[in-house]
Amino acid sequence: MPIWIEEVRWASHQDVLQSIRHAVFIIEQGIDPADEWDHRDATCRHFLGYLDNTPVGCARLLDGRTIGRMAVLDSARGQHVGSRLLLACLTAIRATQATAVLGAQISAMPFYALHGFQPDGPIFDDAGIPHRRMTLNTQSPYQICPVKRSPVSLTVQLSGPTTNIPLTFQTETAHWQLRLPAMDAHTESWLTPRLICLAECFQANRTDVIYARGAGTSGLRWLRMLLTGLSSQWPLGWALGLQSLTGLIIISSLWQLDWRRLQQFGDTSVWAGTSLACALLWHLSAGIEPGLNFHLFGTGLMTLMFGFRFMVLGGLLGLGFHVAGGWMNWTEILWPALFILIIPGALTHLCWRASLIWLPPNFFVYSWGVSFAGVSLAIAANSLILTLVLSLSGLFETNYLLHFFLPYSLMQVFPEGLITGMLMTLLVLYQPTWVTTFHDRFYLSHQSPQDAHRRPRKRQTTDQPGGPPDD
After folding, report:
1. Higher pLDDT pick, 296 / 354
2. Which of 127-141, 152-166, 209-223 shows the lowest per-residue confidence on average (mean pLDDT)?
3. Spatial distance between the Cα atoms of 286 and 377, rounded to a whole number of angstroms
4. Residue 466 pLDDT more than 90?
5. Which pLDDT score is estimated for 378?
């Protein structure tokens, strides 16, 4: 069922806000009404959570940074309404550049710890219920967010600029041992106490957080690292199959590269510059929650400019740039390579090849039919495939993906297609030698489709005898 959050005014929505808080705090928790209602409600910012168009949760924001009175009706719990309410409050606080704080009931501390809050201060009594102050840590780009909960396990998502690692805890045992990929010292110092705090909130007697590093790392641990990022619900055979397929496509693409093209300085500098620009573009991302982020790819542009194989090589160098910068671990490369490079790039390449056979050979077809429509179709298909994979993996509920991930993901289609179409049109007009997939003899002279597969050579400027220069 769809979930959505609305910021409301106390004057206009007092009745529905009071009804939710009355059911949760006064009836369910037995809080005295005199402790629940205060004069600050009239001046606070209030957020109302809807489940299938029915108000089921609320929260208020005091002084632009203090979150309080978070309540979700019992019938709506376990469906991420609370997470959505909290994220809405954090978005409002982030706009003011303040640090979020709250007074959490001791029983609710695991929920807030999963969203990046850290205990800050002693336990205190509020309305007869033990509370503890918690502060959102903003010193690291990483976040921890709950994804899936069962009676015997808990899955959280460790998310960063380019990192998405699901961690599954077996909560029926009192000893939690986590083996994570190697991370920089700052990330480890930020992450370790939060994972231990999370374990303590779930009554784990002992927690070991082990980071794989150094020459002593065993082959088995590296294999575990390669499989990190898969849900425990995802069959191992499928996991190995997808990663093996990605690796084979990469190896095949690199093996069939025409390396002689890299000897031409002009081609190399343009290709390297475009690869670096796309790698930087991936940092400009937005998301609806940790683990579900969106950004422009640039994959279609690189495929049409340099061909599929050189796009894969340039994209891998871009991912290597992220590894070198500490934004992701090298064991995570295969998954973004599949969904950022290979699938959208291959679909763009197929659209271009289909246009050679089924569409008239002219500049308009290439500019609009291939560069705009073809890339748009590739990005849309990639969004559908990624939604299917996330659903089958069990990381996110299917209804949640269909209502919140897929619609936002499809919003990338038009901008990606429009930008690619505009840039390719300009490149064909002013720098045609940079574009591998456009050839005058096919698109302007209407000759055979095979001509479009040959890269145009630069016009010779020599005065040596031997006939006219080759174009």
Report:
1. 354
2. 209-223
3. 22
4. no
5. 95
Arithmetic mean of pLDDT, 154-179: 57
Helix (H) or strand (E) holding 245, with range, is helix 236-255
Which residues is 62 bridged to in the sheet?
Answer: 66
**CATH 3.30.420.40 is the classification of domain 3-104+119-136:** no
pLDDT at 448: 56
Nearest residue to 87 (alpha-carbon basis) of 54, 121, 112, 108: 112
**Radius of gyration for the chain, computed over Cα atoms and rounded to the nearest angstrom:** 27
Which of 98, 68, 99, 97 minimizes the C-alpha distance to 85?
Answer: 68
CATH number assigned to the domain covering 233-453: 1.10.1760.20
Q: How far apart, in whole angstroms, are the C-alpha atoms of residue 465 and residue 471?
A: 16
d(CA 87, CA 60): 12
- Name residue 286's amino acid: A
Give the tokens for residue 305: 């400019």
Q: Which of 54, 52, 91, 56 is nearest to 70 (CA)?
A: 56
> Does 172 have pLDDT greater than 60?
no
Domain locations in the chain as residue ranges: 3-104+119-136, 143-226, 233-453
CA–CA gap between residue 150 and residue 298 (Å, rounded):
39
**Rounded average pLDDT over 250-264:** 79
CA 14 vs CA 51, 54, 199, 447: distances in Å: 19, 15, 38, 72
Cα–Cα distance measured from residue 74 to residue 114, given in angstroms and rounded to the nearest whole number: 20
> With contact defined as beta carbons under 8 Å apart, do 57 and 43 qualify?
no
